[in-house]
Design a protein that fits this description.
alpha/beta; 40% helix
Length: 275
């Protein structure tokens, strides 16, 4: 390996003078390039509020004033989500007062480093939205839960959310709840595991509508997501069907996983088994 690398460096050193000589023999044919005007890259004008190009600004689809809600949301966001361009949490935050939508980014949340979060998790009025066998129906819990209350939502892929939930003991202190809804995800520019999986914004919209007993909240929060997907589809994005839909219809074109656990999960999706 060292010999090959040294050979490459020597070859490059030999070629340099040849090109320079050729340039001189041509009468300095490359000299004129320095006089050509340089085209400057002009960035598209962006909206100061939503950060998107003005042609596809989402501000008209946000509520004029932040929604008045008593429920507070804590969004626990996996670091990988922060770098995604088409993420839904900023849309959610733009619809709510700042003190009602707090975003914490990370994988591990210890009590020493996050004392405020620890206090929230120990509060009897706090819920964590994470589906599972032990999760209660949010609609039933909301009937007896005092207000104001807090809901913790984990933002990330299913595997990322699972890792955060099970490796942070704080998140097993609040009462675990899940949504019982037939709503299909409108976040069609991103692939979901199943047909009933919802984005973080959609989960928050449904949860807030239940907690506040106001269906219009759900409609208001979903409006910027619908606009985002519409803009993206108009500019060349494709509709992303769920992995469940692709597998059942023979449209899944990626290599099947070699990991037996992941392969088993795909088999469960095809056979309509809840995972």
């Amino acid at each position: 390996m060292e010999t090959a690398a040294a050979g490459s460096e020597e070859s490059g050193a030999a070629e340099g003078p040849v090109e320079t000589a050729a340039g001189r023999e041509d009468g300095g044919g490359f000299e004129g390039l320095w006089a050509l005007p340089v085209e400057r890259c002009v960035r598209r004008a962006e909206c100061g509020r939503c950060g998107r190009p003005q042609k596809v600004c989402l501000c008209p689809f946000f509520p004029v004033h932040p929604l008045k809600v008593s429920t507070c949301l804590y969004i626990i966001q996996h670091p990988a989500e922060e770098s995604r361009v088409l993420r839904t949490v900023p849309l959610l935050a733009a619809c709510l007062p700042r003190d009602k939508c707090k975003v914490l980014i990370g994988r591990r949340f210890g009590e020493d480093r996050y004392p405020e979060l620890a206090a929230v998790c120990r509060n009897s009025n706090t819920l964590i939205l994470y589906p599972g066998a032990e999760a209660a129906n949010l609609e039933e819990v909301a009937l007896v839960l005092p207000t104001p209350s807090t809901i913790i939502i984990i933002d990330g892929t299913w595997s990322q959310a699972k890792d955060i939930f099970y490796k942070n003991s704080l998140f097993r202190l609040p009462k675990q709840v899940q949504l019982k809804t037939s709503l299909s995800s409108q976040y069609v520019i991103r692939t979901q595991p199943t047909n009933v999986c919802l984005s973080t914004l959609e989960c928050a919209a449904v949860a807030l509508a239940i907690m506040e007993k106001n269906d219009s909240i759900q409609e208001t929060i979903l409006r910027p997501l619908q606009a985002l997907c519409s803009f993206q589809l108009q500019h060349g994005a494709q509709v992303h069907h769920s992995k469940e839909h692709l597998l059942k219809n023979g449209l899944y074109d990626k290599p099947m996983p070699k990991n037996k656990r992941k392969l088993r999960r795909m088999e469960l999706l095809v056979n309509n088994v809840k995972i």
